[in-house]
Amino acid sequence: MFSQSELPNQQSSFPELVGRSAQEAVSYISAKGLTPVLMKPNQPATMDYRTDRVRIVTDPSGSVVLQTPVIG
């Protein structure tokens, strides 16, 4: 498994998605060949690191991205 610093030519965070709609973020991440996972603030998550997963933290209603999505 690659560490974050070993990912070959791959963006590891997506600050451009903060403030955008959750569905827009899902489309953007999917278009990059990654697996988007929508999460609410303080929602429990597994601690495993996956180079194909991007967690997208939204507002409580699930409509707006609140935090910079990152691979992991």
UniProtKB/TrEMBL annotation:
Alphabetical list of PANTHER family matching this protein: PROTEIN, PUTATIVE, EXPRESSED-RELATED, SUBTILISIN INHIBITOR 1
UniProt key word Lipoprotein: no
Family indicated by similarity: Belongs to the protease inhibitor I13 (potato type I serine protease inhibitor) family.
Keywords: Protease inhibitor, Serine protease inhibitor
GO molecular function annotation: serine-type endopeptidase inhibitor activity
GO aspect biological process, one term: response to wounding
Pfam families: potato_inhibit
Name assigned to this protein: Uncharacterized protein
